[in-house]
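Reproducibility note. Readers wishing to regenerate the assembly model reported in the main text can use the exact inputs given here. Chain order matters: entities are listed in the order in which they were concatenated for prediction.
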Amino acid sequence: MNTTTLLGALLPFVPMTAGLAGLLLPPSSHTATGQDAIRRVAAILGVVGATGSLALAVALLVTVDGPAESSTTWIELGGLTVTLGVRLDGAASLIAVAVTTVAVAVQIYSIGYLRQGSPDEPDHRYPPYAAQVNLFTAAMLLVVVSGDLVMLLVGWEVMGLCSYLLIAHDRRLPEAPAAAMKAFLVTRVGDVGFLLGIALFGVSAGSFRIADVLAHEHSAATRTIACLLLLAGVAGKSAQFPLHTWLPDAMAGPTPISALIHAATMVAAGVYAVTRLWPLFEATPTALTVLGVMASVTLLLGALAATAQDDIKRVLAWSTVSQIGYLTGALAVGSPPAALFHLLTHAAFKALLFLAAGAVIHAVGTTLMSRMGGLRHSMPVTFWCTVIGLGALAGVPPLSGFWSKEGVLAAAEKAALHGDGAAPGSVGWLVWLAGLVGVAVTAWYATRLLLCTFFGTPRTPLAHPKDPAVGPWGTDRTPHDPPAVLRWPVLALAVPAALLGLLGFSNWFSRQLQPTPPAASDAMSDLMPPAGLIHLTPTVLLPLALLVVGAGLAWAGWRRGGGADPVVALGPLRSVFARAFRLDDLQRTVVVRPTVVLARTARAADERVVDGAVTGTGRAARSLGNGLDTLHRAALPRAAAAVLAGALLLGLAAALIGVTA
Amino acid sequence: MRPVIPYVTAALLFGLGGYGVLRRRNAVLVLMAVELMLNAVNLILVTADTTAKAVLPHGGQVFALFVIVLAAAEIGVGLAIVLQLYRMRASVSVDAIPLAGHPPDESARAAARPGGAAPDHPHVSGDEPEGPR
Amino acid sequence: MTAVDALLLALGAVAVGSALLVVATRHLVRAGLYLVVCLGAVAGMYLVLAAELVAWVQVLIYVGAVVVLLLFAVMLTRAPIGASDDLDRPGWPATLIGGGTGLGLAALLIDAYRWTTVQVPEAGTAERLGAQVFGSWVLPFEVLSVLLLSALVGAIVLSRPDIGTTRPARSSTGDGDEVPGERGRSR
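Running the prediction on these inputs yields the following structure tokens for the assembly.
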């Protein structure tokens, strides 16, 4: 085990220890000073855990040099081996750095966001929150460095658990528990497919180690089925159609959680898992076609739904859905490096956007954009950070989003026009066209968000926030930039959101993002994308033009309406988009209601039939006993008659048997 | 001698005794019917002595003697029970003897109260202004 | 049909007829007297069947003691003089079972013996029977004497006057089976 693998093994361990230690803290104390002490310890554990993992990730990034692997056998299940091990390459270390950076930012931000209120206000339960964020970080890092599919699954599931716990964190919100349950159940549906896919691959290869699974010659049928099953898990965790319905509702959780889990890390885990097993997916065109269709639909669905939302966090949530569609689309057209590049930039700018939105929400006291306006002058720092974030989202050069989205569109264009990639050419066309339309729509809703929130006439903000998830800063009437503990993470994230894309020019960076070739492969050439990650060809003008069109339409609509929400230009489509094409209701009718009915029937059957059989047996035995008891308690005449009748019958029987014998 | 005659007589006696046991309500009459059954059995035993060749001679008659002794013992004890029942219940109807169903103390006390004392046995129950003890 | 057969037939008819009257009559005391007739007829049959000792023991003990005891009991339980109406329970189980038993046994025995004849054996005199009882059957004889003793004791115990009164010291709750003669048990 050399330095690299040691660092990789330590990487999930540090935040996990900090998280478990944080969970051991007493939940509350009677005295105010005791409360403060617990908070301080929890904050220290949280920040130290995240920073320690960041330091390890950076060290890993520096020392990693080509794929490194180390594993030991953990369980031997009669021919199937489950190992404990790490598998590290450039992509893993880069993503580890991204995850830990966002985690540090979120931990520091949360110290201020979940501030304890006035003495009679209940604490926002900061200590368990910080511990759970650490646990979540540990689980995501486990997924990133894991060299074994079962370990990956463990990290996957722990992430789901932490997501559930954290979405439901604020118990004062009525919709939070339902949202948490919905998130858990919908991703669970995907996780079943994921588990079956892993099981299929593991059984087929005889071992769950990723290197073994990649090196083994699976049959075509096994590979296809297993890849499709794995895609179910990807769809669940990464909020792709049709398992996307949980992500907008998960915005009921605290905003830093939305930044960490639902923008930067967990939703990217599905994409990451596909890149880990990329050689298998590459050899399965069916899976890539399905992925491509899913990606295109999701891309457009998310973008269109984001245009009509009123809640600022929901706009960002649908935007996440749409951008992950770009990631999966990049995978579908056969370019994992493009997908990973956009994943990294998306982590940066989406986390930035969420944290900035959190600052706005706190200043104004509401999440609804219809009640915001004109914050440009009162919150300049937040405004400029949001501009950077939205620009990266829309793909404005030279911000990071532009370069990575270009990479995705270029890969799609290549697959469409040349059609020699892993997926069929039709998938390439689908992804490319959807991606282009998505650029225009993204620009439209990004502009709308900016205009509605920061421009226009300032509306009277609420003096006392009605939203209990919001902190107490709105107590003075004018909104202002957030305090330092919230401002610095936002500023820190603005840097990679702006500049990360330029790293694409670096050869070292491009090399890091190449997928690890399988150990026993002889054809190397097909895996290398042409000439690095940045594609500055003339076709780059097309998305730029669409961006200008989208932004211009939004701005024109705003101007024409005299400062009103440009969404009114959508007319009758507005409610359709706002409801995301009623897919939520469809899901409720098709899945939730029958399941509830089935559950009720099962429960009634269990109570009446199964339980009924058991208690009925007892009751029947007892009533039979009672009946026999009554019979037995015959008075003398009846008893005598019974005895004599019995004797007569026995005699008859004996006589008959004697006669016949 | 035709043995079928005493045999059939015994069979009919047994049937009549069984009929009497199940038909009669008075306990003493039931005991009388039981005596009929025992006599039927005795008759069969004695007749069997003539038809069957026993290893021990006169075995049937010896058995019949034993049955007579048993019947005597039985009638002694049985009549003692019947008289005791009469003392407690003031009736010897076999219908009136329930077997559990309600706590026996209550029913016994309820039945023993209404003047069921035979005059030659002073009752220990307190509410009877009986004669001098 | 020899004389022995005719005698047996006559005595049998008397026995059966009087037994029928025992179980069917509505006069309580007459039932006892009909029983005497029946037992006497049976004793007569014993005599014809050359079982002398049994016949006389029958008369002595059955007619002389048992029936007398029964009549005593009838008197002591205040039997009504004359016909009484409520002496009988419902008739159908009795008829069914009694009739079935009697006729079934009769059928069995007729089927077994038909109209065969046997020799009347040597008489069962007291000397011969005594030799048998005190020879081969002495053990059952002794047991029977113990049984008589226990019946005697039992009858005396059962006749105690204080059976039927509840003793407050006794904590037994009533359950179905009771040993007759147990002290202090109410009912």
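We highlight two features of this model. Chain B touches chain C through 86 residues (CB under 8 Å). Residues 4-112 of chain B form a domain with the Helix Hairpins fold (CATH 1.10.287.3510).
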